[in-house]
């Protein structure tokens, strides 16, 4: 019998790898997104967002979706975005 925790982690790992192949490392992809957001909202921000902060915002978005309609896909994406935040922080903080 398979373990649901291991199953969802394995699936998230595969999805993160696939997305990396399509869009590049999260630190680079999120940086492109954040550059646009920081530009649009520069007059409202005290300081610019970082790529890892963008990843956290995506986790928050998935949590909000999960509140509305609980779905396996939301949990899968939360795991994937958490991994992306870790990758971004490893670049930002040179971990």
Topology:
Elements: H1 4-23, H2 26-40, H3 51-68, H4 72-92
Helix pairs in contact: 1-4, 2-3, 2-4, 3-4
Structure characterization notes:
The protein is mainly alpha-helical. Helices cover 78% and strands 0% of the residues. The chain is built from four helices and no strands. The protein starts with a helix and ends with a helix. The mean pLDDT is 95.
Bulk shape: globular
Helix and strand composition category: mainly alpha
Number of helices: 4
Most strands sheet: none
Poorly predicted regions: none
Helix proportion? over 70%
Strand content: under 5%
Summarize the structure.
This protein has four helices and no strands.
Descriptors for this entry?
single chain, 95 residues, mainly alpha, 4 helices, globular
